[in-house]
Write a sequence for this structure.
């Protein structure tokens, strides 16, 4: 099909069908800059059939909808290393599928990868378009648009009635992956769940009629539960808000007291130590005097220097020599900031573990590997995350850490040392994106289930 007049003209996004996969409609991002097409898939497992490589996988074909799932088994035609737009390389299974668009059908190759964090469930690359498609990047849906009702009808799906709990997500940014996933998971289970910007909430303190209002004067006293995800810069106000919800009988998945304690790094480390949980040898200081003694306290350089208020790897510095250690410590002290000095665990080789704890159980775990030039795992600054099976000791350490800090939901960071596992930190608002991607688990759904269990709510039988 080399005659331009015979080619399909498409916009930057279109609806296509893949009947061999039982997918009547899926929205694709048309990207001539990408060589290979990719399809969102999870629970991807390779196996052999009659000696040939096959793969089983599941697909959520509609963005922001996990109720609709299609399951597949198909022959593998290749395994290929693909570099994503973020620069991360991944080895993917390649399959061949029949694509239908604008009344035409042809076979294309697609790679399987988890695209939960992406805006589209499928990307259509230039190999699939070659000789058949012309792209008008200024337009969309030139081959047809569909309403939500049309799409659900194609899948034979009727959205369930909302008859569950009233849940509020207390956070700051509704566009964050974790917040979108929690809202999605709550809706999937039939709950009325809404996002509330913490800064737009305000409180009436009254012995007779206490209230919590949201912008515009809406009263939130009728909520059954709240899920607090308080960013560090608004810890004081966020915890005051959660405490007020608790005072009027609204269940908080993480209590205000637990969030406050976990957010205070020094306090949380002292509590963990008092409960027999090991941490790297650490020193705490505020005065610029006796810097050398502070360094010796953690067995000298190399060492880690942390600001108490730092998050996501910010305010954390590796000092490799004694001279560098003195310079960093004195620089931090000049800011009049409290700081922690901590021994450097060289044998960890830039990795740590994140164990996700919900309601007293480790429900997911990943290993984080630091990016080149970083001294410890930090996925927020280019590190990578992979699935890992933690040891029994590490699981017990994580669940106990969450318990002694009173957290129902916690991200527990552990580092492996020659002395055994050591606790680095306990996060009261752990991110979901990397660990859901690495493990393929619906952690947002598990969080919602913990609320259902606490409130004794059960899904009505059909």
């Amino acid at each position: 099909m080399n005659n331009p007049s015979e080619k399909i003209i498409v916009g930057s996004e279109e609806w296509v069908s893949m009947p061999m996969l039982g997918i009547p409609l899926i929205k694709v991002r048309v990207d001539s800059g990408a060589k290979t097409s990719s399809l969102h898939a999870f629970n991807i497992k390779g196996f052999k059939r009659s000696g040939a490589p096959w793969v089983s996988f599941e697909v959520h074909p509609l963005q922001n909808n996990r109720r609709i799932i299609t399951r597949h088994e198909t022959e593998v035609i290749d395994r290929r290393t693909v570099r994503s737009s973020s620069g991360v390389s991944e080895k993917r299974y390649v399959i061949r599928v029949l694509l239908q668009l604008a009344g035409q059908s042809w076979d294309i190759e697609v790679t399987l990868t988890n695209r939960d964090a992406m805006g589209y469930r499928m990307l259509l690359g230039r190999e699939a378009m070659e000789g058949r498609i012309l792209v008008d990047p200024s337009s969309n849906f030139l081959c047809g648009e569909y309403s939500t009702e049309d799409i659900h009808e194609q899948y034979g799906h009727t959205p369930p009635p909302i008859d569950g709990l009233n849940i509020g997500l207390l956070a700051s940014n509704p566009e964050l992956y974790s917040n979108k996933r929690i809202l999605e998971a709550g809706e999937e289970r039939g709950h009325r769940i809404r996002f509330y910007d913490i800064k737009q909430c305000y409180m009436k303190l009254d012995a007779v009629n206490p209230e919590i209002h949201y912008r515009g004067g809406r009263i939130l006293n009728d909520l059954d539960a709240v899920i607090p995800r308080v960013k560090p810069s608004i810890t004081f106000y966020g915890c005051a808000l959660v405490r007020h919800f608790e005072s009027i009988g609204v269940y908080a998945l993480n209590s205000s007291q637990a969030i406050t304690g976990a957010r205070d790094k020094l306090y949380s480390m002292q509590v963990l130590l008092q409960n027999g949980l090991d941490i790297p040898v650490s020193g705490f200081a505020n005065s610029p005097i006796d810097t050398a003694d502070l360094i010796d306290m953690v067995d000298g350089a190399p060492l880690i220097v942390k600001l108490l208020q730092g998050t996501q790897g910010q305010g954390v510095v590796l000092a490799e020599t004694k001279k560098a250690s003195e310079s960093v410590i004195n620089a931090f002290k000049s800011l009049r900031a409290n700081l922690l000095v901590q021994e450097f665990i060289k044998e960890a080789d830039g990795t740590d573990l994140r164990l996700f704890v919900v309601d007293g159980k480790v429900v997911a775990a990943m290993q984080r590997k630091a990016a080149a030039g970083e001294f410890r795992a930090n996925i927020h600054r280019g590190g990578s995350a992979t699935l890992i099976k933690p040891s029994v000791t590490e699981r017990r350490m994580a669940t106990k850490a969450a318990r002694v800090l009173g957290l129902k939901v916690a991200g527990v960071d552990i580092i492996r040392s020659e002395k055994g596992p050591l606790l680095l930190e306990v996060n009261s608002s752990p991110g979901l994106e990397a660990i859901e991607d690495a493990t393929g688990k619906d952690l947002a759904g598990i969080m919602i289930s913990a609320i259902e269990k606490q409130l004794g709510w059960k899904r009505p039988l059909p």
Q: What stands out?
A: The two ends are 51 Å apart (CA to CA). The chain has four domains: 4-154, 166-259, 281-344, 349-452. The chain is about 25% helix and 35% strand.
